[in-house]
Amino acid sequence: SAGEGEVELWLAALHETRDPARQLQTLDRIESSSGHLELQDQYAVVDALKWTADSSFVAAHVRMRALSALGKAGARLPDEGARGRAARYLLDSASVQNPADSRMELRAYALSGLAMLSRRLPRDDESLERDLCSKALDILSERSGPPENTLAMRLLHELFDGRPTILSRERALRSRIEAEVLAPLERDLDALYYDGRRGGEYRYHLMKVLLLSSPFIGESASSRTRAAQVFERMELMEPDPNLKTLARLYARHLRSLD
Known about the structure:
Layout: H1 6-14, H2 20-33, H3 39-54, H4 60-76, H5 80-94, H6 107-117, H7 126-141, H8 146-162, H9 165-169, H10 171-187, H11 189-194, H12 200-213, H13 220-237, H14 241-256
Helix pairs in contact: 1-3, 2-4, 3-4, 3-5, 4-5, 4-6, 5-6, 5-7, 6-8, 7-8, 7-10, 8-12, 12-14, 13-14
């Protein structure tokens, strides 16, 4: 845990932009100690991590680590409000669209941080859950590069797995999942396997999203059947033996529910 006065030393070290090695050591210390901070220190650390991630005066590799620390350390913070603030900061970083913004090249690290934090969101912040799902779907629709595509799908997987009430509660989200995830697979499954941005890790998280969402989108029995049909076709096309097995098991599971 952080000793008396240690948090103040961390904050000072993060502002020492001429000493990246010390900044990285401080980020390591924050990650290992964030679960034992006093309330005011939790907010101070989250704000300092955001400053480090956003500042153009900080070395790029330190900024990347600060975004990862917002996710990893943020998930360990005891206070829900502090965790929510960390998630909002990461969401802002993942939402950058201007190519001239220096944060644009760090969006993948913000998404990775959100995926780490997603199972520890404030319990009653439905708007944050909704905004994170919407952002993940927005990134998937942008035809982003492989890291962002995969991380956006992972974020959906983590959210649906850790927060099963999202889909039952959010009708607009269910409609987007049906239109933007399930329907494209039904129309052109070949595209999934010929798109270089969608490797094995992406397909793994996609399978999880499809399985977890199928009871909620459309009419439940019909959507389960539709998802099972997609999994059966994926089994035939999937080159990865582990994912092929997963597709077969998921198809059988969904068929057994009808």
